[in-house]
Specification:
mainly alpha, 3 helices, elongated
Length: 101
């Protein structure tokens, strides 16, 4: 049951990173939330396998902090790449004589 709570919390924190990291118009709205949910689940399960008690406070803190920091880092990495890709595609498509599909 706690895994469900941590996944929902991770999705909410990941989704919040969509609004913290600039240039949100360059990425999908579900990207950060899904990354946050996945990270929260993986960290939670890994920590329980390492023997951390599920009713302890630190497993919650570590899982939720990771589910906020990892999506923010991923968004900072993929946003410039998307911007470069969009610019390259626009340049290619705006050349005269290029067939548009």
């Amino acid at each position: 049951m706690e895994l469900i709570f941590i996944v929902v919390g991770g999705a909410i924190l990941g989704f919040a990173m969509q609004f913290v990291v600039p240039q949100r118009h360059l990425r999908g709205v579900a990207v950060s939330g899904s990354i946050g949910a996945a990270v929260a689940a993986v960290v939670w399960v890994a920590l329980t396998w390492l023997g951390w008690p599920w009713d302890g406070g630190w497993i919650w803190v570590v899982s939720l902090v990771a589910s906020a920091l990892v999506p923010a880092a991923v968004l900072y990495l993929i946003t410039p790449r998307r911007e470069r890709g969009d610019t390259a595609l626009f340049e290619r498509l705006s050349r005269p004589g290029v067939a548009r599909a």
